[in-house]
Design goal:
two-stranded antiparallel ribbon, 2 strands, about 100 residues
Length: about 100
């Protein structure tokens, strides 16, 4: 439902796929971190946007079309939130200045 209606065409990659992409590009010392995508929760949104959150919410309800879209989107997003996460990839280019270790 989420991929078909909310984000059609979106593809989620695994940690192994991201490591393969960066390794295939020639990067070394690849490290990853992953976790839940907490910004998608109400608490995470408020913590991330802080003072800008009221402006974002006001904009979301400023027009009937925006309000309808949010009313359609939010129930679908709330069902997907437990399955969403992030992958952070850190790597270095071999021979790059300032990255050589002794």
């Amino acid at each position: 439902m989420f991929l078909g209606h909310v984000c059609p065409g979106m593809r989620f990659d695994s940690i192994e796929e991201w490591t393969g992409i960066y390794g295939g590009a020639g990067l070394v010392d690849i490290r990853t971190e992953s976790g839940p995508f907490e910004m998608m929760t109400a608490r995470g949104f408020l913590a991330d946007d802080r003072g800008h959150a009221p402006a974002v919410m006001a904009r979301a309800i400023s027009r009937p079309a925006y309000l309808r879209k949010m009313a359609w989107l939010m129930p679908r997003m709330s069902r997907a939130i437990p399955y969403l996460g992030y992958v952070l990839v850190c790597a270095r280019k071999p021979g790059a200045q300032g990255t050589e270790t002794t």
